Amino acid sequence: MSSYQSFLVDEVPVLLKDLDPKHRRRFGLMTAQHMVEHLIWVTKSSVKDFGLPPDQLTEGQKSFMQFVKKGAFLYHRPSNKSQDDLPVLKMSNLEEAVAVIPSAVARIYSFPTDHIFFNPMMGVLTFDEMERFHYMHFKYHLQHQFGLGLY
Fold it and tell me: What's this model's pTM, rounded to 2 decimal places?
């Protein structure tokens, strides 16, 4: 098991036990439940089978691919968005959302390690790169945005 998989499969559920609906975020607009639903959506949507990549990738796709390949750190970029811009919550409560995380993460590991992912936003990523992206993404929101697991 890779260290990324260990974090996503074993550590994330433990970190989420310390998250409550009124958990104070360090930055950004998302509530705890918005953040968990965001992680679910990004994880599930990023590993869908979008078919073969086009002959020419967009500059955005190429940029995202380079970002992941470098293992770059995600950081908060303030925007003009407000609470009104947050999506409507899909689940009835945080507990219900947290319960979906293991199945969302399991989708990553339902693919063979030689699988090549194509995503219209992300471009083309190997299994290892996709796993690294999700590690970076979960770590960013759980630890940096909500301070979970930081001592």
Answer: 0.92
pLDDT mean over 132-151: 90
* CA gap 135, 42 in Å, rounded: 12
Q: Output the six-digit token pair for 39.
A: 């992680």
> Within a 13 Å sphere around the CA of 73, how many CA atoms are in the beta-carbon half?
5
Cβ proximity of 18 and 10 under 8 Å: no
Per the CB < 8 A criterion, the answer to whether 80 and 31 are in contact is no
Tell me the pLDDT band of 149, cut-offs 50, 70 and 90.
Answer: confident
| DSSP designation for 77 | -
Residue type present at position 121 = M
What is the predicted pLDDT for the residue at 33?
Answer: 97
How many C-beta atoms surround the C-beta of residue 132 within 10 A? 18
How far apart CA 10 and CA 54 sit, in angstroms, is 36
Collapse the DSSP code of 117 into the 3-class scheme (helix H, G, I; strand E, B; otherwise coil) and give the result.
Answer: strand
